[in-house]
Write a structure and sequence with these properties.
This protein has about 90 residues and is α+β, with helices and mostly antiparallel strands. Helices cover about 50% and strands about 25% of the residues. The chain has a single domain, classed as Alpha-D-phosphohexomutase, C-terminal domain (TATA-Binding Protein), CATH 3.30.310.50. The chain has a 3-stranded antiparallel β-sheet with strand order 1-3-2. The longest helix is centred in the last third of the chain and has 33 residues. It is elongated, with a radius of gyration of 15 Å.
Length: about 90
Amino acid sequence: MKCHSSITLDSLTIEEKNALVKLFSVEDTVLSNGRGSYTMSVTDTSLFFQIEADDLVALRAMVASVTKVLGIYGKVGTVLQHHVNKNDK
């Protein structure tokens, strides 16, 4: 059974988009066992991830891989913003 999923990030600033593209450029796009993969498409203000897998377990692993990187990016951004706001006081 082939499985598919997609993740879309809209309304990104140019800085956010460029940072995410750079971050994902070093990530593996294929699972080590070859059962899942993703491609990333870029528009002016959006990123689109198309995820494909041979089965549900591989789909879950591939979605988790992409969302883990997105989560780390979000947490780092929050920490940096807090640091900047703290130093502005």
